[in-house]
Amino acid sequence: MTGRRHKRSTFLPFSTRPARRSRPAWRALALSAGATVASVSLTAGCGVIPGVTGGSGDDSITVMTWAPSDTDATNKPGMPALAQAYAKWINSHGGLNGRKLKVLTCNERNEAVAAARCARRAIDENVVAVVGSYSQYSDSFMLPLQGAGIPYIGGYGITEAEFTSPMSYPVNGGQPVLLASLGRELASTCGSIALIRPDSIAGDELPPLLDAGLKAGGHHDAVDQLAEDDATEYSGQADKVLKAATSDPTAKGCVVPALGDRNGTFMDSFQRERANYPAVRTGTIGGDVDQTVINESGGQSGPYEGAYITGWYPVASDARWDQMKKVINAEAFGDNRIDPADAGVQTTWIAYTVFKQVVDSLTGEVSSDTVRHALDKGFKADTGGLTPTLDWGRNKKLAAVGFPRLVNTKATLQVVKDGVLVAARKGFVDVTNSLEDADID
After folding, report:
1. CATH value of 32-173+319-408 in 3.50.50.60, 3.40.50.2300, 3.90.1180.10, 3.40.109.30
2. What sign does the dihedral 432-433-436-437 (CA atoms) show?
3. Count of CB atoms within 10 A of residue 98's CB?
4. Can you tell me which residues the record assigns to a coiled coil (predicted)?
5. C-alpha pair distances (Å), 276 with each of 236, 237, 242, 279, 336
6. Spatial separation of the C-alpha atoms in residues 246 and 252, rounded to whole Å
7. Total-model pTM
8. Which pLDDT score, from 0 to 100, does residue 22 have?
9. Cα dihedral sign, 190-313-80-368
């Protein structure tokens, strides 16, 4: 290994690799880049639902949803598409508290400048909130939103700012919850455990989160294997983690790949090498692996068969998603951008569910200020069991360990069975105590 360290704007491995940074890791909210980019006049790159304009002069409620689309990296077109479908559906049922919902959309393009454009357009259009969006460039979009007092409700959960900024109202627990819950499960089912993760500053924060869950389950720390996150093959690293995972002959070992958009490349190498070793199990986190990835990698005969996967929400086949699916069928039938099993689509649905409840709770003006104040003063959002009740106004237990905005500390456990991702157990796993004990520098 080279031992090099790179700063990322995200702390989740399943996002696209952003431009390298030299600032400290995720604990401090990076603002300087956002201030520089936001100072430029930015207008391009955003769109609206056909026939809808921004602004509030017609007594409507305007919001924005952004996500990358048509890029060579991570794409989440289903998020703005679901937002558009939601607006059509809610307006056909009387709107939000009697007012029409207008959804502006913006292509974030997986670029810092484009993310800042989206934020500037949101400010110029006087949006009430940014809802259910995806961007890894929090240092480009969060500062402008914070300066304008615009809440960021239900972002995808891929940046440190989403769990530190007072303008952020996350609906999931991001990577910390997924890794801690995965560790707790593997502790009871695995012998030796090997983690393969990026050789980067962001990667350095993964082992303590996984180990916190392992410790809660009475297990020792995982073997920590570093790897370049832009490699074209990983046969050498696959061999090393397989050796580590099979070092205990009395119990089946486990391998945890956490290389984000290089997971597929690693698993190709892993599948070739594993034939030379005793059987091992794999475990990973939602966002890295979904049903589409499982299908593309061979389904029942692929490397993920039997793997444990932790997620933020119930599996897509759960009845609690039925209302979302009805809206998609009614307003976006045949729109192949919207996959009900995609975590981005699911997060957007939950974010709009929260936003509707906040607006319904207001008796007077609906503005970014009134929405934000309602959220800050103990508003409790019921998501129909897709998450625990969300309350951003309560005392945050995890502020001391760097997650002051993290209010959803629960995850679901899923397993790949016969090539299909299904629930491994009922209900959620709460990892609050594990995160409190995490040794994160």
Report:
1. 3.40.50.2300
2. negative
3. 8
4. none
5. 13, 14, 9, 9, 40
6. 7
7. 0.84
8. 31
9. negative
Contact in structure between 335 and 368 (CB atoms under 8 Å): no
Three-state SS for 58-94 is: CCCEEEEEEECCCCCCCCCCHHHHHHHHHHHHHHHCC
Cα–Cα nearest to 223, from 242, 205, 236, 199: 242
Q: Where in the chain is the domain with CATH 3.40.50.2300?
A: 32-173+319-408, 175-311+412-436
Tokens of 175: 């990577």
Tokens of 31: 């603002």
For residues 117 and 124, the answer to whether their CB atoms sit within 8 Å is no
Single-letter residue type at 256 = V
Tokens of 284: 């990973």
Q: How are beta strands 253-257 and 101-107 bridged, if at all?
A: unpaired
Nearest 5°: CA angle at 214, between 209 and 217? 135
CA angle 236, 295, 308 (to 5 degrees): 65
What residue type is assigned to position 419 of the chain?
G
**The token pair that represents 196 in the structure block:** 């393969």
Do strands 193-198 and 253-257 pair parallel, antiparallel, or not at all (unpaired)?
parallel
CA distance 426 to 412: 8
Which residue reads 């709009």 in tokens? Answer: 352
Strand, coil or helix: 254: strand
Q: Pairing between strand 429-430 and 168-169?
A: unpaired
The confidence score (pLDDT) of residue 441 equals 57
- For residue 374, give the 3-state DSSP assignment: helix
From the list 274, 196, 268, the residue with the least C-alpha distance to 1 is 196
Residue ranges in 205-341 assigned as alpha helix (H): 206-216, 235-245, 263-273, 291-296, 322-331
Residue type at position 67: A
Query: Residue written as tokens 């400048």?
Result: 113
Q: What angle do CA 134, 231, 163 make, to 5 degrees?
A: 30
pLDDT in tens, 106-162: 999 999 999 999 999 999 999 999 999 999 899 999 999 999 999 999 999 888 899
Which residues, listed in sequence order, are joined to residue 233 by a DSSP beta bridge?
Answer: none
Q: Which residues pair with 149 in a beta bridge?
A: none
Report the half-sphere exposure of 429 (CA within 13 A, side-chain side). 27
CATH for the stretch 175-311+412-436: 3.40.50.2300
pLDDT of the residue at 44: 39
pLDDT band at 11 (very low <50, low <70, confident <90, very high): low
